[in-house]
Design a protein that fits this description.
CATH topology of the largest domain: CBS-domain
Strand content: 15-25%
Structural class: alpha+beta
CATH superfamily of the largest domain: CBS-domain
CATH architecture of the largest domain: Roll
Shape: elongated
Order of helices and strands: HHHEEHHEHEEHEHEEH
Largest sheet: 4 strands, mixed
Distance between the termini: 12 Å
Bound molecules: adenosine-5'-diphosphate
């Protein structure tokens, strides 16, 4: 986040003399409180300053980088996820390629009966199989996809930082956002019936968030 000259001066005043009231800051700068209000709002909303009633403004002690880091840990996958494109396990490689073009996506999720996650298909998975000279009009995607339990997933309540970290660590483009479904109440691991796919997080979602944060959007 880039601060204006005036916001930088306010930061200096609060750092050295905080807690300090809005009125005192305005006096120092020979400005009215009303003029300062937008600056104070930006500095508190961004987390650089904190405000307490009857005490005034004080420095949060967080660098702008730390503030951004905190934000990335706070924003949940649920807030940035997009609609997943899924194909059934029996789908042919040919149809999967067509789906990628029609839906304009780079990754497809493969589902078994009841819509549970079974695999992931990437562009290179498709390219690789064409090298083998196989008949992709007959070949089912199950042969080329990355299959459960090797699929890296994320849940809606995990942070976007966590999603980005998984994408980088595993060198993949997208993660299925899943919700575990249990046989009984899902309390033990053995109760797990499958993962319902509730969304998708890709490099594009993360990049879009990055652009929005850069524009100063909350
Ligand atoms: P590309 O094919 O464009 O390089 P990816 O980097 O996403 O796309 O895929 C690389 C490999 O990782 C592929 O074999 C793909 O099946 C697999 N893959 C993709 N997404 C996941 C995921 N979420 N979990 C596990 N493997 C994945």
């Amino acid at each position: 986040m880039e601060l204006s000259k005036r916001q930088e001066i306010i930061m200096e005043i609060v750092k050295s003399d905080g807690p300090i009231t809005g009125e005192q800051i305005a006096d120092r700068l020979n400005l009215t409180r009303a003029t300062l209000r937008p600056d104070m709002a930006i500095l508190t909303m961004s987390g650089l300053l904190e405000a307490r009633p009857r005490v005034g403004y004080f420095y949060s002690g967080k660098s702008p980088a730390r503030v951004l880091g905190d934000k990335l840990h706070k924003i949940k996958v649920a807030e940035i996820k997009s609609v997943p494109v899924v194909v059934p396990e029996q789908c042919t490689v040919y149809d999967a390629v067509v789906t990628m073009f029609i839906e304009d996506v780079g990754s497809l999720f493969v589902v078994k009966e009841r819509g549970f996650l079974e695999g992931v298909l990437s562009r290179k998975d498709m390219l690789k199989i064409t090298l083998g000279g196989q008949d992709i009009q007959k070949l089912p995607v199950g042969v080329v996809m990355t299959r459960m339990p090797n699929v890296i997933t994320i849940t809606p309540d995990e942070s976007v930082w966590s999603a980005a970290q998984k994408i980088i660590t595993h060198e993949i483009d997208a993660l299925p956002v899943v919700s575990p479904v249990g046989k009984h109440n899902g309390e033990s691991e053995n109760d797990l019936e499958g993962f319902e796919i509730v969304g998708k997080v890709s490099k594009t979602n993360i990049t879009r968030l990055f652009v929005e944060l850069g524009e100063g959007k909350d």
